[in-house]
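[audit] Reproducing an earlier prediction to check determinism. Same input, same settings, fresh worker. If the tokens differ from the archived copy the diff job will pick it up downstream; this log only records the rerun itself.
[audit] input (137 residues):
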Amino acid sequence: IYDLINSKSILPIGISTCDKLFIDSDFKKRTIFINGIPLSKYNMNKKSNDNESQIEVKMTHTSTIDKSLREIALSITLAWTTLIYSSISNGKTMIVEYIAQQVGKRLIKIQCSDHMDSKVLLGTYQCTDKPGEFIWT
């Protein structure tokens, strides 16, 4: 067992095989860089019927937008939960739409307000046609 643990060749493949496992062009096809942060692309060949997802998000890059893009991309890479907040009409939705478009993911937007009930976000039980039966919605 000692010889197996301390052996110098852990993988039974040669250097030439290792070079073929990771190809630079594959990485470029599957990765998008947002302000220097690499994010995986999804649904690269998938066509969507959703008209909203086909609209290209264009924006002027300013230092504030670039900083926000970098911080959000970093939080995605690290799988951190992120809260984006600021006053009304400052571009929060636009930045998230841009990132979703770049990585090829569908974005689900929920517009929250002071009058919104938590049941809208969390779900609730509803009665069915059968007495005593409920479904989670």
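[audit] rerun output stored. Observation attached for the diff report: Residues 83 and 136 are 27 Å apart (CA to CA).
[audit] end
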